[in-house]
Design a protein that fits this description.
Elements lengths: L2 H12 L1 H12 L8 H15 L5 E5 L4 E4 L5 E4 L4 E6 L5 E8 L14 E3 L2 E3 L3 H19 L7 E8 L10 H8 L4 E4 L9 E2 L4 E10 L3 E2 L10 H13 L9 E9 L5 E2 L2 E10 L4 H20 L2 E10 L6 H16 L7 E2 L18 E2 L7 H18 L4
Parallel strand pairs: 5-8, 5-9, 9-18, 10-17
Antiparallel strand pairs: 1-4, 2-3, 4-8, 6-7, 11-15, 11-16, 12-14, 13-15
């Protein structure tokens, strides 16, 4: 490591206690994906944290998210805003750093506070990904006060809906990705530092089945049992899974029914579909719709499919491999070698989709010991930024 690189990284060691305190504070704020007030508190906190290095700060209002309730009704649920921070937007090299302010832990979850256990910090969102955002801020702060600052600009985009598939923020992520040479997100990796490479495409769907209610004793055969038809559908949908082709259809939940003396008139099937190749998307959607159409004709019941593919397949191509190798080099410089990359089915890490543009990779190390992770993640931002150029 040369003298310039050492000077870049040196402040990180001095800020470790501050990073711990920031992470613990923000992780103790519940920000489940549907806890809008909690997400707003988290965004407010990061607004204040990033304010001393930003040239521009902006909130992005997102449309309400469509939800299908247990009765199969369409609800429009308000969402929190996304946060956008611009740092030297006129610099010749632009880097996109994205993250999210929501977690998988709802306001009703029992997992609400964090604690330090040896060299690990444990708590809701510590790994995914409030700790990563704190690390990112301190890395950008170090660059901000370095001689390299004028050469590099950063866009930081924090979305409030990542844990539910980024249905509303995806268009904004795509927009800013196309304006940047490199994109990075700091999310969890395996405990030994192994990172994720390729990831399957994923879509979440709700299938509503409308039956006909009747009394199970007085007029059973006049009814049309929505749950029975839903069970037939789930068998056919699940059978679309194909291990050899990398296609999976996972039936996650079925809602419906009520008193056992009433033929149920409503059922909702909730399922996830994953594919390895982009060309599989249309084929699997057609197969799903054919199953629904055939079952509807056979049963005489009305059905509606809701949902879509929110994340297309993301292969580990040559450009992503080049970016990963740069990260490995950064790890070697600070004495933290990275084992390699594995398919992202093993780790919750994705690649920012950029269609036909430049590569953008999510690289994270939240699951390794906390102090070592802070050094590596922050140092990686610094060293990667020092050498960044469009691929």
């Amino acid at each position: 490591m040369n003298s310039t690189q050492k000077k870049l990284i040196q402040p990180i060691h001095q800020w470790q206690q501050s990073m711990m305190e920031h992470t613990m504070h923000v992780a103790n704020i519940n920000s489940g994906s549907f806890n809008r007030p909690g997400i707003e508190q988290v965004v407010d906190y990061f607004d204040r944290l990033f304010s001393d290095i930003c040239d521009q700060q902006q909130r992005i209002e997102l449309s309400p998210i469509e939800q299908i309730n247990d009765q199969g009704e369409i609800l429009q649920k308000p969402t929190a805003e996304a946060a956008l921070y611009r740092i030297r937007p006129e610099a010749p090299v632009q880097i996109l750093c994205t993250g999210h302010t929501d977690t998988v832990f709802s306001a009703e979850s029992d997992f609400q506070t964090c604690w330090q256990q040896g060299n690990h910090l444990r708590g809701p969102g510590v790994a995914d990904m409030k700790g990563g955002l704190v690390v990112l801020y301190h890395a950008l702060k170090a660059i901000h006060h370095s001689p390299l600052a004028e050469k590099i600009g950063f866009t930081v985009l924090l979305s409030p809906d990542e844990e539910i598939g980024s249905p509303l923020s995806a268009q904004h992520l795509s927009h800013w990705a196309k304006q940047s040479a490199v994109g990075m997100v700091y999310e969890p990796a395996l405990e030994d530092g192994t990172l994720a490479g390729a990831r399957k495409g994923s879509g979440n769907f709700d299938l509503v089945v409308h039956g006909k209610a009747s009394h199970a004793g007085r007029d059973f055969f006049a009814g049309r049992n929505a749950i029975v038809t839903a069970s037939m559908l789930t068998q056919q949908l699940a059978a679309l899974s194909n291990e050899a082709k990398g296609i999976t259809v996972n039936i996650g939940r079925i809602d419906g029914g009520g008193p056992v003396n009433v033929v149920p008139d409503r059922a909702v099937i909730r399922f996830n579909v994953r594919i390895e190749q982009a060309q599989q998307q249309q084929a699997i959607l057609s197969a799903i719709k054919n199953i629904i159409s055939a079952t509807s004709q056979q049963s005489g019941l009305e059905m509606q499919l809701h949902g879509s593919f929110g994340r297309p397949p993301k292969p580990m191509d040559a450009k992503h491999q080049a970016l990963f190798e740069r990260l490995q080099h950064c790890g070697e410089l600070i004495g933290f070698p990275l084992p390699g990359a594995v398919p992202a089915a093993v780790v919750k890490v994705t690649i920012l989709q950029q269609q036909d543009w430049q590569p953008s990779t999510r690289l994270g190390l939240e699951a390794v010991p906390f102090i070592a992770k802070m050094n590596l993640c922050a140092s990686t931002v610094l060293l990667n930024a020092r050498n960044s150029a469009p691929y």
